[in-house]
């Protein structure tokens, strides 16, 4: 052997260095260079993706407000059995801490936090805090109950104890329409406050519907794009991509122009006499509007993966099937269609995942009934400022998408997926 | 036209145009006998594949009729023609195993499960792939995929099998092996095969008859040996095998033979094949292996001085390039037999050939 010698089982180069060491040295430059090239992307993903998602998931369980401002009260409540209201000692500790918090103008945060889990308790805290600032010393128990009779209820105290937990699952419970009762058992929310589970179900159902409609519309288009002569197929590709290059807002608002009650489509229907002027159809600011506009916007995401898969299917497969005696429709379903399944999977997954988290279109054209879960996440982010609940809703959405991805991988296999 | 009793396929005055301006196939008349192995041979764009596709039903004839077993099939869709077909890239269904691929035509025909199993086993045995039934096409080598494609085209026992350059994707050694296998399958089954290729050695090896296509017209339809030995025009002579071309003008016609004066000087006595009158231009075709070096005096009518330009050693023979009568691309194959002549570049020797080996064809 001229280049490598076999010595004691270790392969070495001619000068005696072990081959593996030498190989590592030789490849180091290449590895460093590749890492240098990948680094900006890696940093970008870390900063813009991994960190925010981690922060969101943390926020959905993080619960610092009450624990920070009422630590001694919570300590005093540690051994409270929850059977009857606590004694004077606890009241006085709470009074002192509320006074401190009120002076630091932080009591509002505590009140808001308690209000999430016990609706109506915001005023209980703020009223009492105002009262306490006026008196110098106890006994406080009567003052509290006089300020708000809720202080005489054990539920107020057990809720206070619950929201005092440093980390909580109450946001997640709220996100699936559950809550904890005074003794900590998990029970459902009152009927009139159950909104998120129906909303999740509606979002899933609408996303599924949009995916199916997109698939039905995209399949023939992709087929034509893949099989027509180049000059026609190029035109089709441009037609599919053209909306892609138009602003999302422009596309959504043009649907408003088309579909509104005084819009183009209704005018035409009235003009040709299909509907009367009084019977104009409500096609926007409801679920119909959301579905129509979202199908239009998400269609290219279905067409392109399908097209890229169909492009690779040789026309001779269909010819072979026909020459073997299969009718054109049988040849299609037994030979062509099975080979497009990876494209269907990729396109459907893409459209479904995009649809499930879509925000701007439902916000613009959804009206009251066409809102999806993402709109409520935005509401809690921007209006109610209940970030914990927003994070929990977002976390559930993320978990749902990951579960779907896992399922898809199990059933179809992610390796066979083609995005183009 | 006399009706041959055993014509399985018949093209009658078939024309094909794609754009309405040029004809890809010009007035094709061709009979394929039952049990025959007929090859359509020609350069790309000569119309041979179009003919095959018309026969399979994937292209429609612009004019004329195609008959299969006496029935006009112009309006019969491909799936009802009962013609097996082997495609250039095999076209095995990638989502099915070999067994499922073979079962496909049988299931379409609604055969019983036991019968399907039996036919698949027989087809796999025929191509010696018994152990590969459960593999997918992607797991097969090129030669194995090719065999499966052949087996699939035959498993439903069609009377006619079409093959569209089926060996084009294989390497040379495998291609030659597959040629013999397909030839033997044809002989054993007695099925009629129409085979399209642009590879002349493939055509010569396998066929009963070869139809040489050029420019949408059959240039010559003949068995392989006749095609090589007796080409009827300059295109066929040039396309099949190696060939020395000498251009000239007919000087005199003497029955079977004629006298041609070459453009660069010298008179050649040649067999009059495709020349009709004195004064016509002609291409003389002469196979490199039919030229003798230093012929015995008066043994051949055509003897010329030739200068050795180049010698290429090819093992069994020496490929020698001469300069003869102003042509410096005159090739002679000198067999590497015992006691063969030893030539040196630059040396001038006499070469000669018989009149019947030199065919005077159209210009």
SSE order and pairing:
The complex is a heterodimer of chains A (420) and B (363).
Chain A: E1 4-7, E2 10-13, H1 19-59, H2 64-69, H3 71-77, H4 88-103, H5 107-117, H6 121-134, H7 141-147, H8 154-163, H9 170-175, E3 178-180, E4 186-188, H10 196-227, H11 230-241, H12 248-259, H13 264-271, H14 287-311, H15 315-323, H16 328-356, H17 360-365, H18 373-382, H19 387-411
Helix pairs in contact in A: 1-19, 3-4, 4-6, 5-6, 10-11, 10-14, 10-16, 12-14, 14-16, 15-16, 16-19, 18-19
Chain B: E1 7-16, E2 25-33, E3 37-41, H1 48-56, E4 63-68, E5 71-72, E6 83-86, H2 98-108, H3 113-126, H4 142-154, E7 160-164, H5 172-189, E8 192-197, H6 200-206, E9 209-214, E10 217-222, H7 224-229, H8 234-239, E11 244-254, E12 257-262, E13 267-272, E14 281-286, E15 292-293, E16 302-313, E17 317-324, E18 327-335, E19 348-353, E20 358-362
Parallel strand pairs in B: 3-8, 3-9, 6-7, 7-8, 13-20
Antiparallel strand pairs in B: 1-2, 1-4, 4-5, 9-10, 11-12, 11-14, 12-13, 14-20, 15-19, 16-17, 16-19, 17-18
The largest interface is:
A-B, 19 and 28 residues
Q: Average pLDDT of chain A, to the nearest integer?
A: 87
Relevant CATH superfamily of the largest domain in chain B? P-loop containing nucleotide triphosphate hydrolases
Low-confidence stretches of chain B: none
Q: By helix and strand content of chain B, what is the structural category?
A: alpha+beta
Low-pLDDT parts of chain A are 1-5
Features:
heterodimer, A: 420 residues, mainly alpha, MetI-like fold, 3 domains, two-stranded antiparallel sheet, two-stranded antiparallel ribbon, 4 strands, disordered N terminus, B: alpha+beta, Rossmann fold, OB fold (Dihydrolipoamide Acetyltransferase, E2P), 8 helices
Please provide a written account of the structure.
The complex is a heterodimer of chains A (about 425) and B (about 375). With about 425 residues, chain A is mainly α. Chain A has 3 domains: about 5-50, no CATH class; about 65-165, no CATH class; about 195-415, MetI-like fold. In chain A, about 70% of the residues lie in helices and about 5% in strands. Chain A has helices spanning about 20-60, 65-70, 70-75, 90-105, 105-115, 120-135, 140-145, 155-165, 170-175, 195-225, 230-240, 250-260, 265-270, 285-310, 315-325, 330-355, 360-365, 375-380, 385-410, and strands at about 5, 10-15, 180, 185-190. In chain A, β1 (about 5) and β2 (about 10-15) form a beta hairpin. In chain A, α15 (about 315-325) runs antiparallel to α16. Chain A is flat, with a radius of gyration of 31 Å. Chain B has about 375 residues and is an alpha+beta fold. Chain B has helices at about 50-55, 100-110, 115-125, 140-155, 170-190, 200-205, 225-230, 235-240, and strands at about 5-15, 25-35, 35-40, 65-70, 70, 85, 160-165, 190-195, 210-215, 215-220, 245-255, 255-260, 265-270, 280-285, 290-295, 300-315, 315-325, 325-335, 350-355, 360. In chain B, a hairpin with a 2-residue loop joins β17 and β18 (about 325-335). In chain B, α2 (about 100-110) runs parallel beside α4. The mean pLDDT of chain B is about 90. Classes of the chains: A mainly alpha (about 425), B alpha+beta (about 375). At the A-B interface, α15 and α16 of A face β6 and α2 of B.
